[in-house]
């Protein structure tokens, strides 16, 4: 089994449930508040580890009341936390999430995540390069993401880049990515809003894996658009579904699955994750995904 390194954010998610999302200037009543470990990087690490991946997390926490809990939670989920750096006089990253009407809105405060720097990656280079698959996102400084991608590319690693939150990136960066995993909105920003899914996939030269929410996912494989059908879900909370997909994709590839198999595996895991509250708390284990796999073969 290949090793996975996740370089990214570690947050505490403050999740409030309410009947509907407030309009600008409006106050609505919430009926439940939860503190749930999150952050796109940590979420993807937990998703991959819970599914059986060999995962090491690289990132930063602050020195506030959340730091110990965040690291302990990763360790409890079998993620190697030895290389997480603690930054003094700094708060941990925070995500403020409102859940209503089977969807969510999120505001992220970077906190210690802004200290995931080039210098930190350089110092951890030997440890990072022990992994075969490098998983990246945009909740740490992009300068760091680009530096890590370049380092991984030079050493022949598989680089999975989740372009969220979205920001424009140079083409020379994209040339070093093995797979990019935008949702449909992010794909339109990357490849053009006038493009169909099939045109986006072809334009990406096989790099793009587009997640389509309750429509499943799509990729360009063997010169064809392959659409992975969704698993029917009784949706409770979509928070973390994309992170589950990315972690599961990395896990599947690390365990020798073909790209089609890994996509089916990831799509099923993401669907299952929407049936529980919270990002990490909703992530399934391998047994749960395996029970659904036979019925969800790829459609071309």
Automatic annotation (TrEMBL):
<dbReference type="InterPro" id="IPR011877">
    <property type="entry name" value="Ribokinase"/>
</dbReference>
<feature type="binding site">
    <location>
        <position position="243"/>
    </location>
    <ligand>
        <name>substrate</name>
    </ligand>
</feature>
<feature type="binding site">
    <location>
        <begin position="211"/>
        <end position="216"/>
    </location>
    <ligand>
        <name>ATP</name>
    </ligand>
</feature>
<comment type="similarity">
    <text>Belongs to the carbohydrate kinase pfkB family.</text>
</comment>
<feature type="binding site">
    <location>
        <position position="183"/>
    </location>
    <ligand>
        <name>ATP</name>
    </ligand>
</feature>
<feature type="binding site">
    <location>
        <position position="239"/>
    </location>
    <ligand>
        <name>K(+)</name>
    </ligand>
</feature>
<dbReference type="InterPro" id="IPR002139">
    <property type="entry name" value="Ribo/fructo_kinase"/>
</dbReference>
<keyword id="KW-0119">Carbohydrate metabolism</keyword>
<feature type="binding site">
    <location>
        <position position="273"/>
    </location>
    <ligand>
        <name>K(+)</name>
    </ligand>
</feature>
<feature type="binding site">
    <location>
        <begin position="242"/>
        <end position="243"/>
    </location>
    <ligand>
        <name>ATP</name>
    </ligand>
</feature>
<dbReference type="GO" id="GO:0019303">
    <property type="term" value="P:D-ribose catabolic process"/>
</dbReference>
<comment type="pathway">
    <text>Carbohydrate metabolism; D-ribose degradation; D-ribose 5-phosphate from beta-D-ribopyranose: step 2/2.</text>
</comment>
<comment type="subunit">
    <text>Homodimer.</text>
</comment>
<protein>
    <recommendedName>
        <fullName>Ribokinase</fullName>
        <ecNumber>2.7.1.15</ecNumber>
    </recommendedName>
</protein>
<keyword id="KW-0479">Metal-binding</keyword>
<feature type="domain" description="Carbohydrate kinase PfkB">
    <location>
        <begin position="1"/>
        <end position="285"/>
    </location>
</feature>
<keyword id="KW-0460">Magnesium</keyword>
<dbReference type="GO" id="GO:0004747">
    <property type="term" value="F:ribokinase activity"/>
</dbReference>
<dbReference type="Pfam" id="PF00294">
    <property type="entry name" value="PfkB"/>
</dbReference>
<feature type="binding site">
    <location>
        <begin position="39"/>
        <end position="43"/>
    </location>
    <ligand>
        <name>substrate</name>
    </ligand>
</feature>
<keyword id="KW-0630">Potassium</keyword>
<feature type="binding site">
    <location>
        <begin position="11"/>
        <end position="13"/>
    </location>
    <ligand>
        <name>substrate</name>
    </ligand>
</feature>
<dbReference type="GO" id="GO:0005524">
    <property type="term" value="F:ATP binding"/>
</dbReference>
<feature type="binding site">
    <location>
        <position position="278"/>
    </location>
    <ligand>
        <name>K(+)</name>
    </ligand>
</feature>
<feature type="binding site">
    <location>
        <position position="237"/>
    </location>
    <ligand>
        <name>K(+)</name>
    </ligand>
</feature>
<keyword id="KW-0067">ATP-binding</keyword>
<dbReference type="InterPro" id="IPR011611">
    <property type="entry name" value="PfkB_dom"/>
</dbReference>
<feature type="active site" description="Proton acceptor">
    <location>
        <position position="243"/>
    </location>
</feature>
<dbReference type="InterPro" id="IPR002173">
    <property type="entry name" value="Carboh/pur_kinase_PfkB_CS"/>
</dbReference>
<keyword id="KW-0418">Kinase</keyword>
<keyword id="KW-0963">Cytoplasm</keyword>
<keyword id="KW-0547">Nucleotide-binding</keyword>
<dbReference type="GO" id="GO:0046872">
    <property type="term" value="F:metal ion binding"/>
</dbReference>
<feature type="binding site">
    <location>
        <position position="276"/>
    </location>
    <ligand>
        <name>K(+)</name>
    </ligand>
</feature>
<keyword id="KW-0808">Transferase</keyword>
<feature type="binding site">
    <location>
        <position position="267"/>
    </location>
    <ligand>
        <name>ATP</name>
    </ligand>
</feature>
<comment type="function">
    <text>Catalyzes the phosphorylation of ribose at O-5 in a reaction requiring ATP and magnesium. The resulting D-ribose-5-phosphate can then be used either for sythesis of nucleotides, histidine, and tryptophan, or as a component of the pentose phosphate pathway.</text>
</comment>
<dbReference type="InterPro" id="IPR029056">
    <property type="entry name" value="Ribokinase-like"/>
</dbReference>
<feature type="binding site">
    <location>
        <position position="139"/>
    </location>
    <ligand>
        <name>substrate</name>
    </ligand>
</feature>
<comment type="similarity">
    <text>Belongs to the carbohydrate kinase PfkB family. Ribokinase subfamily.</text>
</comment>
<dbReference type="GO" id="GO:0005829">
    <property type="term" value="C:cytosol"/>
</dbReference>
